[in-house]
Amino acid sequence: MNTRATMKYILSISIALFAQNLFAQSMEGNGDAPSPNHIRVEEYAARRDSVLHRLPPRSIAVFRSAEEFSRTSSAEFPFRQANNILYLCGYNGQNATLVLSPDSLTIAGEKLCAALFVPARNPQTEQWHGKQQGPEETQRMLHIPSFSADSLDTCVQRAFATATILYYDWLHPILRESLPMKEFSAEHEEKKVLQQNFPGIQNIEPTAPLVDSLRMIKSDAELALMNEAIQTSCIAHREVMKSALPYQYEYQLAAIFDKTIQDGGCEAQAYPDIVGSGPNSCFLHYSTNRRQVMPGDIVLMDCGGEYRGYAADITRTFPINGTFSPEQRAIYQIVYDAQTAGIAEVKPGAKFTAPHKRAFAIIRTGLAQLGIIRDSAWAHINPLTIPLDSVATGMNAPDVFRYFMHGTSHMLGMDVHDPNAAKILSKNEVLTVEPGIYIPEGSPCDKKWWNIGVRIEDDILVTDAGGKNLSAAAPRSADDIEALMKK
Ligand SMILES: [Mn+2]
User: Fold this and answer.
1) pLDDT of residue 484 exceeding 60
2) DSSP 277
C-alpha cells in the first residue's frame, strides 16, 4: 500500500466511524440486519417539528406502524414499515405508535410534544426472532422520547380527553388494539364509537395532509438514498439485458435483477417485479412472471430496488434476441421520443400533467403515421410544438387511449407511488416519466403490430436546470440497448 492508498484507507475508516456516530442506527439490536436508516436524528426531529407546526391547538396526531400480513396459515409476508413512521422517526419495527401534540402530552410526569410507543423487549420473543429494539434502545438511537407500548392506552386516553381534533391513520387501526372498542370495521363506525367515548373530539382528520407535502420535497439525505436505489437498479437492468436468452422463464430474468440489487445493498424490491414477454408485455402490471420467453419476443421489465426505505422505479423494454424487429423498433422509437419530450417538460413551476400531455401528443402522431390509428389530421401535426392545453388525453382521445391507457408520471420516494399533494412541480421533487404503447393480439390494426408492448420509465429529479434523469445509467435508446446486448 503506497502513502496515498494508506491515506485513503485511513480516511475511509474515519469517515465510517464518523458516519456511525452521526447516523441513527435503527434496529441496532438486530446485529445481522443492515440498518434501514441513514437519515440523521436531527432531520427526523425537524420533520416532526414541521408536522407539529401544522397542528392546530388542542389537536393530536397518531401514526401507526405497519401490520404483518399472512402469506399462508403459518408464514407471514416480509414486514415493511409504514412510510410515515419511517419518515417521522426512523423506527423500523412492528406495533409502534407515534403521537404528536402541540399542547404536549403528559407521560410519566413529563410534558412532551412527541412520544413513540414501542414493544418492550421480551426474552421469549427474542429467542425466536432476534434482538428487539425496546424503548430504551429506541430513545438512545433515534433521540425521541420512547415508552413501552403498554403505556399507550393511558397516554392516549388522557390526551383524547382534552383534544378537539384527532389526526389519525385509518389504515392503521390503533383504536382496535389500544382502546376499549373492539367490534367495528367500517371507518364511519370507528368515528362514531370514538366520538361517543370522547365527546370532546369534534373532528377526525386523516394524517396525510400533515405529511404528504413534506415528503414530496426530498432533502439531500433522501436524494442520496434514492440515488443508491436507482443506481443499483440501473446496474441490475443492465445485468438482465446482458444475460437474457430465449427459452429462459420470465422469473429467471427477475432473479437476475433481484440478485443484482441485493448485491448492491437493496434489501428488497420496491414493488413486485414485472417481467412481461411477448403477449405479456401488453399487461401493465403483469407480475406472475411464469412464461417461457420465446425467440423474437419483446421483454418489458418494470423493476426497481428499495434502498433504506426509498424506491427506484425503472422500466426497460428489450428484444430477447438482442435485435429489435422492424415493428418492435418502430413502436419503441415512438415511446422513446415521447419519453424524451416528456422529460423535457419537467421543470420547477411546470404543471404535473405537462410531461403526460407532451408524451400523449407524440404517441398520437406516431401511431397515426404508422397507420395503427386512423387520425389523418394528427399524422401531419408537429407534436413537439403543439400547445399542451390543446392536447386531449385519456377517454377524450379514445383511439390513442386504447394503446396508451395510463398516466405518464407519478411521484417517487419512500413509496413507489409517492404522495402527490400539488399540481405544480417544485425543485427537489422526483417523478417518473413513463409513456408506453401496448398492442395486444386482436387489436384493430395490422397483425404485424400485435403482442408488442413497450414502456420506458425513468426517475426524474426536478432541478432549476430542468429534469435530471437519475436513471440514465440504464441504456434507454434502441441502439444503446442492442449494443449492450451484443457484448
Ligand atoms: Mn412507475
Assistant:
1) yes
2) E
Cβ contact 132:93 at 8 Å: yes
Note the pTM of the prediction, 2 decimals.
0.89
Q: Beta strand pairing status for 452-455 and 458-463? A: unpaired
The answer, yes or no, to whether residue 417 has pLDDT greater than 60, is: yes
Question: Strand runs (DSSP E) across 142-249, as ranges?
Answer: 146-148, 165-168, 203-205
CA of 434 to the centre of ligand 1 (A): 7
Query: CATH homologous superfamily for 3-213?
Result: Creatinase/prolidase N-terminal domain (3.40.350.10)
The reply to whether 217-485 shares the fold of 3-213 is no
- Tell how far the Cα of 233 is from the centroid of ligand 1, in angstroms: 13
pLDDT in tens, 358-411: 999 999 999 999 999 998 889 999 999 999 999 999 999 999 999 999 999 999
How large is the C-alpha radius of gyration of the chain?
Answer: 25
At CA 338, angle to CA 336 and CA 341, rounded to 5? 105
Q: How far is the CA of 138 from the centre of ligand 1 (A)?
A: 34
User: Positive or negative CA dihedral for 407, 409, 411, 414?
Assistant: positive
Check if the beta carbon of residue 349 is closer than 8 Å to that of residue 422: no
- From the CA of 292, how far away is ligand 1's center (Å)? 25
Distance of CA 143 from the midpoint of ligand 1 (Å):
35
Residue spans of the domains in the chain: they are: 3-213, 217-485
Superfamily for 217-485? Creatinase/methionine aminopeptidase superfamily (3.90.230.10)
Pairing of strands 305-307, 268-269: antiparallel
Query: What's the CA-to-centroid distance between 314 and ligand 1, angstroms?
Result: 7
For the chain, how many residues are written? 487
Residue 180 and residue 459: Cα distance in Å, rounded?
A: 46
What residues contact 378, with CB distance under 8 A and at least 6 apart? 364, 365, 368
Distance (Å) from CA 442 to ligand 1 centroid: 26
Residue type (1 letter), 393 = T
- Specify the amino acid at residue 337: D
> CA-CA distance, 145 to 160, in Å (whole number)?
19
Strands 430-433 and 75-76: unpaired
Distance 70 CA to ligand 1 centre (A): 26
CA 129 to ligand 1 centroid distance, Å: 34
CA 209–ligand 1 middle distance (angstroms): 23
Strand 146-148 and strand 110-118: the pairing is: parallel
| Helix H or strand E encompassing 432 | strand 430-433
Q: What spacing in Å lies between the alpha carbon of 355 and ligand 1's midpoint?
A: 14
Rounded distance from Cα 299 to ligand 1 centre (Å) = 17
